[in-house]
Automatic annotation (TrEMBL):
Upon Fe-S cluster removal intramolecular disulfide bonds are formed. Acts as a transcriptional regulator. Probably redox-responsive. The apo- but not holo-form probably binds DNA. [4Fe-4S] cluster binds at C43, C66, C69, C75. It comes from Corynebacterium hylobatis. It comes from the Bacteria. This is Transcriptional regulator WhiB.
Length: 105
């Protein structure tokens, strides 16, 4: 019984140390992945203003570019995670992203 209790404490202690280590390396990993998808962003090679149109302006050209972008999923995920309020991200407008967020909970 004592042994089991010791084992539990030890495992708990070890897992919290491991947890911190994993968290750090995941942060680094996410940073690297984030950078990587942004390097492949198709919009970076086009007119950025198309992605941030004036109110009521057309989003068609930006969305057309997004549809051909290799990192659309990553981009959309980033926008949803960071609650981006402006512009076209991952082929969706702010309103469309909010609707999607509601749908997925
Ligand atoms: S999905 Fe659209 S907004 Fe996102 S990186 Fe690609 S082109 Fe840019």
């Amino acid at each position: 019984m004592d042994n089991m209790a010791d084992g539990t404490v030890l495992r708990g202690g070890m897992s919290s140390i491991t947890g911190a280590a994993v968290e750090m390396s995941l942060d680094e990993l996410f940073g690297a992945v984030e950078q990587e998808w942004q390097d492949q962003a198709l919009c970076a090679q086009t007119d950025p203003e198309a992605f941030f149109p004036e109110k009521g302006g057309s989003t068609r050209e930006a969305k057309r570019i997004c549809m051909a972008c290799a990192v659309r999923d990553e981009c959309l995920e980033y926008a949803l995670e960071h609650d981006e309020r402006f512009g076209i991200w991952g082929g969706l407008s702010d309103r469309e992203r909010r609707r999607l967020k509601k749908q997925i909970g």
